[in-house]
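note to self — DONT lose this again. spent like an hour looking for the file last time. sequence + predicted structure for the chain T wanted, 521 res
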Amino acid sequence: MKRNTRQLCLMILVFGIITGAYACRFLAMYDIGGSNPSYVRAALYLLLFVLWGYSLDQRIIQKPVLHCLRLMAALILIWMILRTFKYEIVTDLTVARYLWYLYYLPMLFIPLLGVYVAMYMGKPESYRLPAKSRILAVIPTLLFLAVITNDLHQRVFVFKSGIPGVPDNEVYSHRLLYFACLGWMVVCMLFTIIHLLRQSRIPGIGRRRMMPFILGCVMLLYGLLYLVDFPKVRFMFGDMNVMFCLLYAAIYESCIHCRMIQSNTGYVGLFEAITLVSCIVDRNGHVLLRSKAAGEDMVCPQEGQTMISPDGIRISSAPIKVGYTVWGDNVRQLMELRTKLNENKVKMEINKKKLQNAYLVQKELYELAEKNRIYDELEAKHGKQTDRICELLELCKGAASDEIHTYMKEIMLIGTYIKRSANLYFLGQEYEFLPQQEIRLTFDEAVRALNTCGMECGVAYQMTRPMRTSEVTRLLELVKIVVGMTRDGLYSLFLSLADSEMNLSVECVADLSEVKRNAVN
């Protein structure tokens, strides 16, 4: 109802201005009031078209159509200003004639703009006219140049006296270029009307889609009757300039009313009727528009900030041209869900910590079990040697220094063997082949221990590549067996290590035939 009332008030205002101007026309025709009615009439029409141009700027959505309609409104204003100067102000015949020629600037270009508007109808906002359609502007440009230079060639109008303005501008006849101008305007109008009729397929508008077509036909009929000098038309609607301007405005206003030209008419009512909690405020925080769902106490968070009320309503804002648009969302369920998610997150963190602790405990258990396994394996392998060390340490108690020295030598030999054997065990868990450096460390330490114990011992290395760990272990075991069997009667021992064999030279008292038979392949 508010929208309909507003439209009715605007229609009353428009028809009131037109009625007042029409009344001023008859007052001027019968010389009532002097020249004042003519001035009032011109002012009313200028006001009407200024208001129409301003309303177009506020309503039209599609930018290319808005540009065309702006130019059209500007040309109509120029037309009305030229007409006012010609009839109300100018008295010089030459100036009046050129003002008359200048009429053809809006008369030729307004139909072209109408063609462009018709071509934009039904197209998206990003649509741009093809280049060949823009070339159409050349035709009215050339025709206007022909009209404005008519005094030089008289191919548009020819004056009865043969000289423009002598004795006046009233007695003239039309030439070929005038009919070219007329044909251009008629063709553009017909194209616009037909295109409007073809494009008016919007559902729900019914017979209203015929309104632009009917007004276009009225314009063509009026132009024809005016051209043939029909008496009643000349008397009732004799001001051709005003009539054409009004009909042009009426045609495109009807296109807006029929929704063939997109406009934002009715958006205020739609905004007020929506169920979304929303409002539009200016930069000072004063509410300009408010939806029915928005409360009176709704505040506007500035600079795009967000506020959440205790009852779960989130108030957001975003800057727009006139200020801010503010809207509210019910995020209570989201807040409850977020609370549950946070609780689940805390539980997951606790469970994660427990699992991590359990993993660390399990890891320690696995490490301890692995250590026990390795210890048991090494204990089983070197149990006799460790027992022998314990036995020797017991013998050292209360023994003479020479005996202790002998016992300590044996302990050193056994300890060196255990150390290097255990080292080879751990290396064998990781490497299949040992580099020469590790082999040298193993046998060099064994040789140093033997030399320390008073046994002459040496080693020579002729290896060119790594050796299997198992083979190095076997060779160390062989040296241990030989030393163990010849410990009391060992004079010298010499090792020679090569890629394919090991030479072991031993000078001792003991018989090593059994070792040679069982341990050496």
